[in-house]
Known about the structure:
It is built from six helices and three strands; from the N terminus they run H-H-E-H-H-E-E-H-H. The model has no long low-confidence stretch (mean pLDDT 88). A three-stranded antiparallel β-sheet has the order 1-3-2. The longest helix is centred in the first third of the chain and has 36 residues, at 5-40. By secondary structure, the protein is mainly α. Strand 2 (90-94) and strand 3 (102-106) form a beta hairpin. It has helices at residues 5-40, 47-56, 63-67, 74-86, 108-128, 134-154; strands spanning 60-62, 90-94, 102-106.
Amino acid sequence: xxxxxxxxxxxxxxxxxxxxxxxxxxxxxxxxxxxxxxxxxxxxxxxxxxxxxxxxxxxxxxxxxxxxxxxxxxxxxxxxxxxxxxxxxxxxxxxxxxxxxxxxxxxxxxxxxxxxxxxxxxxxxxxxxxxxxxxxxxxxxxxxxxxxxxxxxxx
Length: 155
């Protein structure tokens, strides 16, 4: 009773600004995490994840099989593999039974680097969330799942 109607609009406007500021803060935080993981965690399709996956498959995979694990077009995967091959970590050979298929094999140097990279990745996973309680980690996982589901709807 007796409230100034312009005050109500002011409050709504400031709530919208606060919500937008919070959304920007959340997106900036998620952006930082994505950037950090990409550049410090080897990304999802860079050298470290690729050689670690090949190592987990006994040191050898077909290029087609390898490609099925990553969100990369075949040409992009081939480009990444060329860089990895140039650094002496893998060798590519044609499959004698199907000349269209390439077999990717880790070199000894590649196996050693994959083992180091895997140790680094395990160490990072052990430490990445050690400042959160188990309950906080579970809640974060639930929230991230919820965000991912929403973003998939928006895409």
